[in-house]
Amino acid sequence: xKIFENGRPSPDHPAGRPAGRPAAVDLRGAALYPGYLGxxxxxxxxxxxRGVVAAAPLFAPVTPWGRPMSVRMxxxxxxxxxxxxxxxxxxxxxxxxxxxxPIPDSVLAIWRDLxxxxxxxxxxxxxxxxxxxxxxxxQDRDETDFSWPVLSVSLGDDARxxxxxxxxxGKTASTWLHSGDVLILGGAARLAYHGIDRIAPGSSTLxxxxxxxxxxxxxxx
Length: 221
Ligand code: SIN
Ligand code: MN
Prior knowledge:
The protein has a single domain (about 25-220), classed as Jelly Rolls. The chain has two helices and 13 strands, in the order E-E-H-E-E-E-H-E-E-E-E-E-E-E-E. It has helices at about 40-55, 105-115; strands spanning about 25, 30-35, 70-75, 80-85, 85-90, 125-130, 135-140, 150-155, 160-165, 175, 180-185, 195-200, 210-220. The protein has a seven-stranded antiparallel sheet, with helices on one face. It has a four-stranded antiparallel sheet with strand order 7-12-9-10, with no helix packed on it. It has a two-stranded antiparallel ribbon with strand order 4-5. Manganese (II) ion (MN) binds near residues 138, 140 and 194.
């Protein structure tokens, strides 16, 4: 049984609402779990992500059209998501030629709780937003099977998140994502356009030097 049976988290799914966790709020078909992770859990995730970044350093990606992106990124898992002049794609190696480190168990635990254990994600994309970084509206569509959701974790400074429908140029809604929030793009919202308008510098003390980390977990193939 998958959590998204009818485009929405099923309250009957054993993984849909873990005990003691907040319930999902609907955000144009996406499921937002505000404050899903407590302060200690967020700190433990950041510690584990330090290990990921030590093994697979953040790099400055470039779009296929040659425009530098404002986020810096890396990945953990069987695949990493990369972009350069050759296009958007999943790659089995870091651009510097090294292996991607495994996805930390602290990260996989969130997927297990909210999506289930039938299948674990192949990729954890790590995006780092310094002050002024943003992400334009886009779809996550480089994966093979869109019946698996994309699960996103916010850590650090608040971010203004924007979500539309599955067509470019349609109506959008926006909300602030805070540190510890988890968002699931699944069901009818799996291919929704989404992006980050801006972050609010200094709104969180989680990261000693400020900024925001976003993790997205994806089943790739
Ligand atoms: C993304 O869509 O890859 C990132 C979304 C976010 O930063 O919250
Ligand atoms: Mn995305």
